[in-house]
Amino acid sequence: MKTAAHIISFIFHPLLLTTYLLLILGYYFPAFLSIPTANFKIVLSLVFGFTFLLPIVNLLMFKYFGTISSYSMHERTDRIVPFMAITAIYSVMTYLFYSRVPIGDSFNKLLVIVTILVLVSTVFTFIYKISIHSLAAGGLVGILLPLNKAIENGALLWPTAIVLFITGMIMSARLYLNAHSPFEVYSGAVSGFLIGFAGILVLF
Question: Does the pTM exceed 0.90?
Fold first, then answer.
């Protein structure tokens, strides 16, 4: 059971959820993203590089120079500097896409919502060790849920239901591994959901 919890936490790492969001929308709601089919893989690769690979490289550097004691960052204080760096990376990515890459407005607004999620997680980290896994998963649900009303054929219904189920698995895994207290897990999921949901309603 513990192995399964670790696998779930790894597969659905918070840094991967932006890539998953684009994959879901690119397959089930491509008209929303307005990314030409021929360019989608390029855009997805850029987003994966900015939101996963580059932050991972930063974590490797922080561990090498002793800024963090472990990659798991069990202590809240270990998270502050890496989270600030990740927030900077996401902010730069969003700015570059907005100002340098001619992609649809909806895609850019999604990046803004994702960056706000990262920023809020960093702010919370100054106070307590919120579950970033739960916050990211809750944010994904919050983004997808209102988008169901924007698509007429109901294509996002099952993907949203599956993401909701996976969010429950993620929360259960974090609790089972004793990585967070129930409050840290639940508050992360609620915060992420509210930000994602409100972001879609306000920006769209």
Answer: yes
